[in-house]
Amino acid sequence: MAFDTARPALREAPCVGTRMNDDDHLMARCAAGDAAAASELIARHAPRATAVARGMLSDAAEAEDVAQEAMLRLWRHAGRWRPGEAQVGTWLHRVVANLAIDRLRRRRRWSAEDPPERPDGAPGAEARLAGEDRAAALRAEIAALPERQRVALTLRHFSELPNPEIAARMDLSVEAVESLLARARRGLARKLEARRADLGLEHGLDPAGAGREPGT
């Protein structure tokens, strides 16, 4: 990615008391057109962005596209980045989640308009398709959760982060994260209650699609 070296100079240094972490410094350098800083941000954050997208979409090619688009948006936002207001990882995760959600919504529209043919006679085909239906239904409902619940749930179950790390990324207490996760799971259970038998969810809900109650 080529950077525009004609961009304005870096912003004035933040006032005393504003904390700048390494990512903040890299964003400031990106705003000045520093390609090395952009490469460092990619090395730090692209693998996690891709993993989150893959967890939500279950498609490696789509996940790569989403991660690349999210990184592009991060670079474009560099000139407006305010140190201390957010963490780069959390900001990027939200962009990834929103881009993935857009793709999930498009999939739902396409699926409704043109239902796929179901193969006959293939060993295990029905079980495999039932599993895909469960995963698709869960992901669609996760996409509709309030933003903070969705972010916490995807960080926990798709990125497989522990609650303390989620709390650090979201700038919340561990107790607040646990509350978000509990509310998200209750919300999913309510929304999918009518479809439990249909989707094979009699034994609980797993946002990753495994049909079991997730741990915290």
TrEMBL record:
A UniProt-annotated Pfam family: Sigma70_r4_2
- Keyword hit for Transcription: yes
One GO MF term attached to the UniProt entry: DNA binding
Domain RNA polymerase sigma factor 70 region 4 type: residue ranges = 137-186
Keywords per UniProt: DNA-binding, Sigma factor, Transcription, Transcription regulation
Q: Which family does it belong to?
A: Belongs to the sigma-70 factor family. ECF subfamily.
Protein name as it appears in the record = RNA polymerase, sigma subunit, ECF family
